[in-house]
## 1
Amino acid sequence: MSIVGATRLRLAGQVGAALLLLGVVIQVAAAQSEVVRTRLPHIADTAAPIPMMTSQADFVRSHVPAGATALYFTDDHEVASLFSYYLISYNLAPRNTVWWGVPAPQGHVADWWQDARGGSQGIRRLAATDRAAYVVFAGAQVPGDLHPRAEWTMQPGFSVAEL
Amino acid sequence: VTTLTVLLVLVAATGLGHLVLSSANLRPSLPWGGDLVIAFMAGIALMTLVAFWVSLFAASAALAVSLALAPLASLLAVFLAVRRWRRPETVPPRLTAGTALVAVLGVLAVVDIGSVLFATYHAGPGWDGLFVWSIKARYFATTGGVPSTFFDDLSRQWSHLDYPFLYPLTVSFGYWLLGGSLLHADMVVTLGFVLGLIILFHSLVREVSGPVLAVLFTVVLVTVPAFWTNATRAYADLPLALFLLGGAGMVARWLRRRDLRDVIVGGALLAFAIWVKRDGLMMWAAAAAAVTAATVILRREVGWYPIAGFLAPALLLAPWWATVTLHHIVDPSFAPLRSGWLFAHLDRVPSLLQTLAGQLLLTSAWGFVWVLAAAALILRPPLRSPARAFLIVVVAAHLLSLTLIYTLSTWDPYTNHVNSSIDRLVFQALPVVLLFLSASILEVRTLKSRTAREPYEFDGLAAGLMSNRLVTVFGGPEHVHGNVRPT
């Protein structure tokens, strides 16, 4: 390569580097203003506590012995019910195995609820499949024809039944 | 108490890592705390691996054994460090226009770093932090290790039983010592990883691109909105980004220095990245291919040792891999890797590439970082820099692997799966692409022996960014080793 050619190549490289540097400076200015505008004012918001359902978990713990399996039953599989199931399971880990039953068919393989259609018979069938001796009813009433051995109610819509 | 306890665990892990790296003569000698971060990464990986290995034989004693090991190693490491310590040569700083520029950028960096650390410390773990990672930490802290019952409890398969354990075991050390699952411990652990990421990033950029770009790019990193998002929740994506940065950075360093130690440490950190999150596998595989290709080309100079040195640390993960396989744990969110499924869902690829491009151009999350990386590829193609070429290849491999990952998704519709996680997968490669970008502006291509003290020779833009005066103020030329050639 000639000297002129080499010089041009080097200059082109320097111009490229200078352009990139300019771009980085613009990035810093833009991102800095974005952080000041949208992040710093909301630092406190990130600490918003997660509703951990601790009292419900304590209630379940007081009636379901360690090592026993429970079936968590909700009326629907909306996000709120899904997260309440996650929270109960979180709070009871590793003390109890907790399955989730919903009176609805499963959609596809990555759904986490199990089909508990059919009223009290469906609940008993699923509990037997999961080897669960206890059913936690959350946002759902205990069916009148379930006839559990024992039943404890923390509040309307949250009960534990021993089958 | 929570903060102090968790910090003690992290310090103990650093001591263990320092001892192991020093004993094996693998200390990388990075500037400005880079060595400490590498020691922390190695230490926490080894502590968690030991906890898992012990769990295979005595699950209830695993955390105790691992926690007993680290402080002992730390004491020994401190003893050795004190014995070997020598007062560094210091050069009194001089006030120049260059130092003023670095000082201004430095103040900005300190304010930004302080803000993000404050936000991390006060944040909550987030839903996935709780349901994927913290739940495992809670399980392990209660049982004293990783019992086989953990893999058998399929009622909690939604929490991804097959995910690796570096992060949850680190948190579980804190829970175990504290006697309960205090969620603040998750955030203190995250704080450690955030700080480690910032320090290591600054160190790697400084070594290659000098002090001005090191401070400037540190500001770039901590002001990217996606960095804030990932620093203020207890997910494993930020720790994974740290391990990918360390691993890719050290392998790139090997390509510059041809020092076998760099490729061994790089291989170890990339293998440990898989121990943080399975997503690390893509960059490890791409780096393995690159190291193999480079070794074949350079075999007369380096022999076959780099390949063995890179691959060997991955064997440490074999017990975990075997355990997950033997328990037949599958993730129902993904179909098994079979050609039938792949061919049947190939039509997703164009849509996935479009989604990926849309994500990279999302300025509210990334600013112009990915646009700048593309510009760097065009304006400063890494034709004569194997290290830069390596960095962009592993980033591309990581990003493009997303198409394969989501082609296997079983979600219906699969776009929900993509939209819920693609930003995190892209974030994992952010520090590495910024390292590529900084080296595209200024790259010291040949870093030779640690003891070389040759004068710097710069011209043009490089002279302004890497003057001796600036280097002097930031700790002396011993941090940028000899025979420097700007590109």
## 2
Amino acid sequence: VRTARKLAEAWRLALLTRNAASFGALFAESAVFLDVEHREPEDRLRARPLHGPIEIEAVTRDWLDRTPEFRYDILRSVGDDLVCALLWEYELPGAEPFTGLTWIEAESGLIVRAFVAFDSLALLGAHPAEVRDWISELEAMEP
Amino acid sequence: VISPPRSIQEIAALLRSGAATAVELAEATLERIEAFEPALNAFLTVTRTLALEQAAAVDDLLAAGVDLGPLMGVPIAVKDTFATRGVPTTGGSSTLARYVPRTDADVVVRLRAAGVVLVGKTNMNEFGWGLDPRLGRVNNPLDPSRTAGGSSGGSAAAVGSSNIVAAVGTDSGGSIRIPAAFCAVVGFKPSHGRVPDSGMLPGCWSLTDAGPIAHSAADAAAVFGCLARAPEEKQSCVCDPPTLGVLEDWIQECRPEIASALDCALTRLAQEGWRLIPVRLDLSGTHAAWMLTFLTETATALAPFLGERLADTSAEVRWAVNTGLTVPAHAYLRAGHFREQLRARVDKALGDVDALVAPTASAPPTADEPPPRDEAYYADMRFTVPFNLTGHPAVSLPARAAVEPAGLQLIGRLGDDERLLALAARLEDTLERRVVGAA
């Protein structure tokens, strides 16, 4: 049975290998996943908890589709078999790296609750690499 | 058995002489479509019942002495982005498989009023960008192992196979002209705004125009005349001899088989007395401006329309929407500023000539279509995109002498659509006459 810490490592690996299916498979059917970046599409002020592996996989796939290559390092983790807290650093190309915290609770080798918190405004300055290149191309053409 | 008519004029003559009824023509067309579909996959919906009802109504009207004009009784198909009352409208996406509009798009209203017989909705790239594997790609009628191009590939393949004489598509970056070139038919993107866009599925509004695909410029003009608003100003006649501004460096960038086909056509025109003047138009910045505009507008229009259904679309569509949502306002505005400057440069290049001439696509159709994010995908569009950015009318004509399907693109002045199509018809006549003479 995977411990909470092992699940945290598998979480990181799934994201770095851009494998949404593997990421979703870490969660129990009853799992609840709350990330500060997950908002209701029609109301960005409302948090949107994700429920179960299918929804988590779909949202993760969508996020990976629009996210360029990134760095995601675990700086420190504390916990036991059932819970784990992580301090991590995340970096998109062309943007300043930032840190955040993840809380994982495990049962029977699957995640049943997860919280992710970070300064999501730090993402505002980051655009996909293609968008940055297109902007640079037009900027270079202006007198 | 009625052999496939090759033109709107031929259909008009058959109907009015009593040699065929509209119902007979519709039945023959539907049979051909059914026979070709396994190879082409050009249609998402074949509207058999509707077509036969409309054809019967046409026969009744003709018998009563009512003539609705040149398109009356002509079997036509429309791209599946146009809303059709009571007929599924998918945008090439199985996520909309159950969407049945209650009203018609303006384009469909105009076609119905002209007495057209609507035989079906044609296959297309998913929302003009991705490919829904559940619906499949459109195969080329000249060689089904190759793509028909996109995104109006179904419309071009249906015409290219001679199953119908004309169809309607839309063009945001070459989506009428490129498949027309690949299928060796005529494709016309009108001046921006000449054809009403109400009732099209949401997409990039400032780049997109609906237009005809047909076997000839004359037929394209007939369909355009039905679809379009009246021109704002009276248009002048084509000069005699016509003068073309040739974008020679664009032709030189093409694959040898395309470049030689275009050179051959231009040589013939020169021999027939057409004046050819070399002109230059720098393509720098067009890719960036088009992508920033296309993705921003597509995302703005599609994200609220699809809502959670976005998750069920292809990776290409999800990427387009999600990337478009990240484009900052200053970048979209900067692209708009670039477009104004490019429009002025194209207007200047058109100053002393009747039209510009350029390749449509730089290479022939391939077996595998690269994904839209791929640079190779954009390479096919780089000669068509500039005129979506500027809004100028542009028509792709088959370069008749080509071994591979090669499109010759004519670009006219803004709003001078009818004049451009008249010039295109004259160019066709000149090339055809020479080919016949040479034979």
